[in-house]
Amino acid sequence: MLPTNNAVNGVPSDATMAPNPSPSSAAAALGARPLVLIVEDVDVSASLLCVQFRKLNCIPHRAENGQVAIEKMYLVLMDLHMPVMDGFEATKIIKSSSDCNIPVVALTSDTREVNYRRCTEIGFDECLTKPLKADQIKELLAKYVPGHTSSD
User: Fold this and answer.
1) pTM (2 decimals)?
2) Which one of 102, 121, 124, 144 is least enclosed by Cβ atoms within 10 Å?
3) Residue from 67, 56, 54, 51 nearest 15 by CA
4) Last-in-domain residue among 47, 71, 95
5) Where is this region: Disordered (predicted)?
6) Which positions ≥6 away from 4 have C-beta within 8 Å?
7) Shared domain check, 109 and 89
């Protein structure tokens, strides 16, 4: 995801991450710091929650309301072949548990047709070959991140 660097009262508002499908996921079991989206319109409440989640070794992010939360979950770039949980399985979970239609773009160096077919069946929005070039990244941002403008 592509975090912004905005903050409200020191509370990050960069809520650009995919939802964590389950606290018992393999990543959590391996000690990864969970990303927690706090959707709260009261600055003091959001700040207190962020402090508490940081103390629990989480990475809190803030959105001021539900619409902002959904709009800030822009884009997932997903490698297909990874240990523990591959991109196919992770995308199945994201696509089946998300009401906000987060775009997921497959990234792979394995160009076999079987991968492209599987990506389509699972529901990836696109399947691209690594490495991505700068112009491809700009195109993805223009296509999937509402209102994004490139700084160059």
Assistant:
1) 0.62
2) 121
3) 67
4) 71
5) 1-23
6) 13, 14, 16, 72
7) yes
Print the domain residue range for 30. Answer: 7-71
**Is cis: bond before 131, omega within 30 of 0?**
yes
Half-sphere exposure of 44 (CA within 13 A, CB side): 0
Q: Which has the closest alpha carbon to 122: 80, 82, 85, 83?
A: 80
Q: What does the alpha-carbon distance between residue 41 and residue 26 come to, in Å, rounded to a whole number?
A: 32
User: Hunting for tokens 């076999």 — which residue is that?
Assistant: 112
Q: Are residues 132 and 84 in the same domain?
A: yes
Beta bridge partners of 60: 36
Q: Collapsing DSSP states into helix, strand and coil, what is residue 107?
A: strand
**Residue 22 to residues 29, 36, 80, 108, 120, Cα–Cα distance (Å):** 11, 12, 20, 25, 24
Read off the pLDDT of residues 56-89 as tens digits, 9 standing for 90 and up: 888 888 888 777 776 666 788 899 998 889 999 9
